[in-house]
Recover the amino acids of this structure.
């Protein structure tokens, strides 16, 4: 059980080593950023134990995401902060304190206020118990190689209807009178449930609002009627990774990003869970899929070998993203390998 800071650090040692090896930053700096993102309380900090992480299927609280585009590779951590704390209120408080430091560390103070506004908009007024967030409120992401922060929060509070309405209100607050927002929610809410929402960026010029959702019943991309998701790249990707196999609804995570400054839908993503219950690919099959999907669009090859997947890291999710300009990227979300 991952119930102490040291147990968590030991559990993610191999993933941390890979991240440090792939980063341009010094290894010490990479690990310092990891620790700030994890925000694990030490032995001198009294806390109620019993927390759990929902970031990965195996309960580990850290991913290293490598994004491949035609222009190169980018890597970043995604964390479930303060995951060992059992009290949801105390866990949020500790995570929130970590977030305040990360604005400065990641060069993202320009978007601090809008991130704070997001939390105020979506959280209940009383934050002592936060019973609607048994797995915590926040996930945090940042890269050791570039400025910017990702702040994600559980978006399910109040059930399906309430969560979609709250999302609509928030996006219309950020981007008033936006027909793309209303059209997206009108269609997606009929077939899917929100998982999380978030903000990614370092400045108001590059800031994006993100919406993550899963299908609530078997549906097609045509049913969702989201223009970007109707591009051929997405159906080809699903064929490449899933093929004719059935995959449970929880194994697909859809994401839409809105560029706040322009008010435009900026990009769409589909991430596929890499656990055996969803796609059940062995190392050889994964290496083939990764090579095939990146080479199709002349993307930068991932610096991942079969040995890494056998001995060091496992695939938590593998995904494709396409922006409104048609630029394609592949996202490989790695977690620590349990041997």
């Amino acid at each position: 059980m991952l119930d102490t800071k040291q147990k968590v650090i030991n559990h993610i040692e191999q993933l941390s080593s890979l991240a440090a090896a792939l980063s341009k930053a010094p290894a010490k700096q990479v690990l310092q950023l990891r620790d700030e993102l994890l925000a694990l309380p030490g032995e001198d900090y009294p806390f109620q134990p019993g927390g759990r992480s929902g970031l990965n299927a195996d309960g580990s609280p850290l991913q290293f995401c490598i994004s491949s585009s035609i222009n190169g590779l980018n890597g970043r951590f995604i964390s479930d902060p303060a995951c060992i704390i059992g009290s949801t209120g105390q866990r949020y408080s500790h995570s929130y304190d970590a977030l305040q430091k990360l604005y400065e560390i990641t060069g993202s103070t320009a978007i601090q206020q809008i991130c704070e506004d997001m939390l105020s908009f979506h959280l209940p007024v009383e934050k002592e118990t936060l019973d609607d967030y048994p797995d915590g409120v926040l996930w945090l992401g940042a890269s050791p190689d570039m400025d910017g922060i990702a702040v994600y929060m559980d978006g399910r509070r109040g059930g399906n209807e309430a969560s979609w309405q709250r999302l609509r209100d928030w996006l219309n607050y950020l981007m008033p009178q936006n027909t793309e927002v209303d059209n997206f929610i009108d269609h997606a809410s009929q077939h899917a449930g929100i998982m999380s929402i978030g903000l990614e960026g370092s400045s108001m010029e590059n800031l994006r609002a993100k919406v993550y959702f899963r299908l609530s019943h078997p549906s097609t991309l045509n049913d969702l009627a989201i223009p970007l998701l109707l591009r051929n790249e997405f159906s080809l990707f699903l064929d490449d990774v899933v093929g004719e196999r059935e995959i449970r609804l929880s194994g697909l995570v859809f994401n839409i990003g809105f560029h706040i400054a322009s008010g435009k839908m900026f990009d769409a993503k589909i991430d596929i869970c890499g656990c055996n219950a969803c796609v059940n690919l062995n190392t050889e099959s994964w290496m083939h899929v990764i090579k095939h999907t990146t080479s199709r669009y002349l993307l930068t090859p991932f610096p991942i070998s079969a040995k890494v997947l056998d001995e060091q890291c496992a695939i938590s999710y593998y995904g494709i993203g396409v922006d409104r300009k048609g630029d394609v990227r592949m996202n490989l979300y790695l977690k620590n390998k349990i041997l």
